[in-house]
Structure formats: C-alpha cells, structure tokens
Amino acid sequence: MQASVAATGDTPLVYLQRIRVEMAKRMLETEDASFDEIVYRVGYEDTSAFRKIFLKQTGLRPTEYKRRFQKI
Fold first, then answer.
1. Which domain holds residue 61?
2. Can you give the pTM of this predicted structure?
C-alpha cells in the first residue's frame, strides 16, 4: 500500500478533492461569492466537474448547501 493511501485512506487525488470541497464549503457558508468564483479560487477551471465532486462528497448541490448553511 502506498504511504499516502495508508496515511489518509485516500489516493492523493481524492485527498486533494476533499480539501478543495472543504474550502468551497467554508466559502459558501461565509462569503457571497458566486460558485464559479469559488471553484476558481479552490483551484478548478471546470465548474461542472467540481459541482459533481461537490455533490458526491456532500450529498447536496452547491446552491442547496449554501441555502442550508450560509452564515451571512
């Protein structure tokens, strides 16, 4: 087993995706930026691809997540 998988339980790509989704979640909770802007700021260029990753990891679409958890 690779050291990175053994340490986190994830491949490096999945780990990075989890970090980026966590960053996006915090931004959706605390900022009024558009999802496109947030996607760019967390290091993605393809909004559609990141939206799918976000949905897979959270079970919510970004707009649903923002509506439910926004603290502004």
1. 3-69
2. 0.87
